[in-house]
Amino acid sequence: MIKGLRLRHYSADGAKATIEQLVDLYLKVYAGGGEFYSEERYRIQLDLHMQRVGWELVAATVERELVGYIYGFPLPLQTRWWEGIQEPVPPGFTEEDGTRTFALSELLVDSAWRRQGIATALYDELVAGRTELRATLLVRPDNIAAQSAYHSWGWIRVTTLRPSWENAPTFVVMLRTTEMS
């Protein structure tokens, strides 16, 4: 592990002071990714996600520099998370009650700090102690490195999904059940 790596948990209220850093790192990681990865769209997404009950972020810093972060939240009873599924799923798959599924929405690490275990440390820290029965995430089909990491952490591919957001790409839906850590 990296000397001086610090992981810190934030609630939505606590993370408000870090918004500019979160957005800056997001834009750096997704530079050149197209309209979907714009600053305006991400600020809207982040704001909406931070309003979710149970939203939690874990930030990774080295000498006070933000090098990565991960965040997610439990899916509420009335969620739009599953809208846009493109392949059949088992009956009841998309039913939520606020405690069934944890949605891992972002996991990113600055390119200069990749392949040093930071993503794994962030992931382990966020899911430790989660009480939901399962977790879900969306990953780009062409992001083979991320999919490989998720597979190594016990995630499985379930279907594909194209969100209704403007310029949204199609994503692979992955799931991890029961004990997440």
TrEMBL record:
Keywords: Acyltransferase, Transferase. InterPro entries: Acyl_CoA_acyltransferase, GNAT_dom. It is an enzyme of class 2 (transferase). Its EC number is 2.3.-.-. CDD domains: NAT_SF (cd04301). Residues 5-179 form the N-acetyltransferase domain. It holds the Pfam family Acetyltransf_1. One of its GO terms (molecular function) is acyltransferase activity. Gene3D superfamilies: 3.40.630.30. This is GNAT family N-acetyltransferase. It comes from Micromonospora parva. The lineage of its organism: Bacteria, Bacillati, Actinomycetota, Actinomycetes, Micromonosporales.
